[in-house]
Specification:
- It is a single chain.
- By secondary structure, the protein is an all-alpha fold.
- The chain has one domain.
- It has eight helices and no strands.
- The longest helix is centred in the C-terminal third of the chain and has 24 residues.
- The chain is globular and about 65 Å long.
């Protein structure tokens, strides 16, 4: 029932995604939140029964030239005593056509949200936070692999994913302002380089 409510209108879906987006900006002291969201996105990507927002928008209804009657009679208004509870409460009357954003835009949104985790700046002295970021980063890169393996991406989504991966590679592996670390496991880029370059 909660899933039904959250996905019942575009405003609810937008609020849900804004919450998810902001969660990836949380400090790394909250790894459970990031990992749960990554699992949620992964379940949406792998599930053959996609959430409504991942479905393609309904095609627009094209009105053909129908003969117009000169004065159509308005339908009679039903009395409140006849209306079922759903009609009064409006619960089952949600217009869900505006919720459908399509698979490709949903995948791009997942990529945009999750890539924020890699932008957290780390001080080299905090090994525990680096461990957390490496673990979460590996989960996110695995999600990207699942997206590629599970769905056929259009050109725009491919380009978006590749540009994010290229940006991550340049940002994490190439820093001309400082010499490379002696031990590659002391940096995020060095720790996930194998998976990033796969």
């Amino acid at each position: 029932m909660m899933r039904e409510m959250w996905l019942s209108s575009r405003d609810n879906v937008n609020l849900l995604f804004e919450i998810c987006h902001q969660a990836f900006h949380l400090p790394l002291s909250h790894p459970g939140v990031v990992n749960k969201l990554t699992e949620l996105y992964s379940s949406w990507v792998q599930d053959s029964n996609k959430p409504l927002f991942m479905e393609a928008p309904a095609p627009p209804i094209i009105v053909s030239s129908l003969p117009v009657s000169p004065s159509p009679a308005p339908p009679p208004a039903p009395s409140l005593s006849v209306l079922p509870w759903e009609a009064i409460s409006g619960y089952s009357k949600f217009d869900r056509s505006d919720v459908r954003a399509g698979l490709q835009s949903s995948l791009k949104m997942f990529i945009a949200h999750t890539s924020q985790l890699f932008l957290h700046q780390q001080s080299g002295s905090n090994g525990h936070q680096l461990e957390i970021q490496v673990d979460s980063g590996r989960r996110i890169l695995k999600l990207y692999q699942e997206i590629v393996q599970q769905w056929t991406l259009d050109g725009e989504t491919w380009l978006y994913l590749l540009s994010v991966l290229l940006h991550l590679t340049i940002t994490l592996l190439y820093d001309e302002s400082s010499p490379p670390p002696e031990n590659r496991d002391t940096s995020l880029g060095g720790s996930i380089a194998d998976q990033l370059l796969q």
